[in-house]
Amino acid sequence: MSNPAVQTGYAPINGLALYYEIHGTGEPLVLLHGGFGLTAMFSELLPLLAKTRQVIGVDLQAHGHTVDIDRPLRLEFMADDVAALIRHLGLPKADVMGYSMGGGVAVRTAIQHPEVVRKLVAVSVPFRRNGWYPEILASMEQMNSTAAVFMKETPMYQSYVGAAPKPENFPLLCEKMGDLLRRDYDWSADIAALKIPTLIIVGDADSVSPTHAVEFFNLLGGGKMDAGWDGAGMSNARLAILPATTHYNVFYSPALAPVVIPFLDAPMPATK
């Protein structure tokens, strides 16, 4: 059942007609889906977040309602799109939260456009490609247009067909996703330079290792020392490892919202 209060639109961004949905009112939060997904994948999470804030769900390039353009899929390009959307909507800043591929886009938005990001929530995404387990990297190597045949029985394909203006483009999406997933990256230096309050979330049975999540946390200044009785030694970074949670259910886990909401609601730390 659709929510009559939801606003939808298409923003002319970097050659795209970028689809977005606005749910609720309050402090703005941009919410970014995973690869092969769309905003609708957050059907469990989004209403909880929208109780107290304005949630802006974005269908990224070639996903959901957003038609692809003649441009490779790159986290950096999609981060530029997100920053441009924040400006298009007339927002001085927004919190940005993303899962998996969307988590990578969220992190890149904070790195490339820190002036428009208030707080960052990165769910199930590594800052370096080898943060994914080896078996996940092996499956990424196999992604190409021929995988479309095998994916037609999956919920991801059904969701794509239900929303995409050109569902026949699914093999092309698989090809472009494969090209994206095979690209090596290491954002260590960029992460270490981030000043934006950041929450890192992974499941304890995720595709990203808890060890890597701790390394991510360390780069942001977290986990370096005892915080003291008054918490004075605490960094601006937060780390949550959700129990009994995988990469494939973390985005609708009942444990997710109770971790995210207090982080977003907390006062901004004093500038050091």
Molecular structure report:
The chain has an eight-stranded mixed beta sheet with strand order 1-2-4-3-5-6-7-8, sandwiched between helices. It is built from ten helices and eight strands. It has 272 residues and is of the alpha/beta class. The chain has one domain: Alpha/Beta hydrolase fold, catalytic domain (Rossmann fold), CATH 3.40.50. The model has no long low-confidence stretch (mean pLDDT 95). The protein has helices at residues 46-49, 75-88, 101-112, 134-141, 147-151, 155-163, 170-181, 188-193, 210-219, 256-265, and strands at 7-13, 16-23, 27-32, 53-59, 94-99, 117-123, 198-205, 237-246. It is globular. Helix 2 (75-88) crosses helix 3 (101-112). It is 33% helix and 22% strand.
Order of helices and strands: EEEHEHEHEHHHHHEHEH
Architecture (CATH level 2) name: 3-Layer(aba) Sandwich
Question: CATH superfamily name?
Answer: Alpha/Beta hydrolase fold, catalytic domain
Based on CA atoms alone, the radius of gyration comes out at 18 Å
Number of helices, counting only DSSP H or I runs of 4 residues or more: 10
Spatial arrangement of strands, main beta sheet: 1-2-4-3-5-6-7-8
Broad shape:
globular
Mean pLDDT: 95
Number of domains: 1
Helix proportion: 25-40%
CATH class equals Alpha Beta
Low-confidence stretches: none
- In the CATH hierarchy, the third-tier topology is known as Rossmann fold
Helix/strand-derived category reads alpha/beta
Tell me the β content.
Answer: 15-25%
N-to-C CA distance: 47 Å
Number of E-type strands: 8
The biggest sheet, with number of strands, parallel, antiparallel or mixed sense and barrel status, is: 8 strands, mixed
